[in-house]
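Why does residue order matter? Because the sequence determines the fold. Keep that principle in mind as you read this record.
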Amino acid sequence: EVTAALAGSEEVRAARPLSIVLVDGEKDHGPGEHDYPAWRNRWVQLLAAAEQVTVTPAREFPSQEQLETADVLVFFQRGSFADRRPQAMDAFLARGGGAVYIHWAVDGRDRAGEFSRRIGLASDSAISFRHGPLELAFSDREHPIIRNFSKVALHDESYWKLIGNPAGLDVLATSLEDGEPTPQLWTKEVGEGRVFVSIPGHYSWTFDDPLFRILLLRGIAWAAHEPVDRFNALVTPGARMSR
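Structure:
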């Protein structure tokens, strides 16, 4: 399955230096769920194994220096769009920065509407959700992030009834919730900036699923304006695989 998903990959030569910031938050669920700090520790090591990549962590929100120098920010935390975040993210995206939001990072709380205008869809904490088998059905359009994907089965958590306008998104994958296809993976271009969002990511084991990892690594590369195959070497280390 991994071989099939990676078919047609292009070798990325003379990769430019990339600065990635991983933004976590305080753990807010049970064992193996929403474990933002554990994810940060593992993915700092994973991404740093790539050539020409510098990875730094941040708690809750990047520093001003990180905002000015990062190519892509990856958020995995309970989201927020309070305080200086709107102005900071607008400036970051305006200069061509990339932003990746995983799972509960889409929570905008009482500013969900404002948040959704930047990332596409956001939560006001009053959404529908479901834990368990999750089948992602992928769009039939050609987008590099979902090359070679038609369906993927995960065991994770879906969200739906989010705030925002799906018509303004490039929806990459949906799941069937309440009898309707609902967005679970999408991209949005904001001026010169790029945003990639993955609702899956509730359980720690999801990040070790090599197929999910392909999608997330491609999303990070795409948000950074890089070829999506740049991080292919990171798909299998530590992943849960069988022969």
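The radius of gyration is 16 Å.
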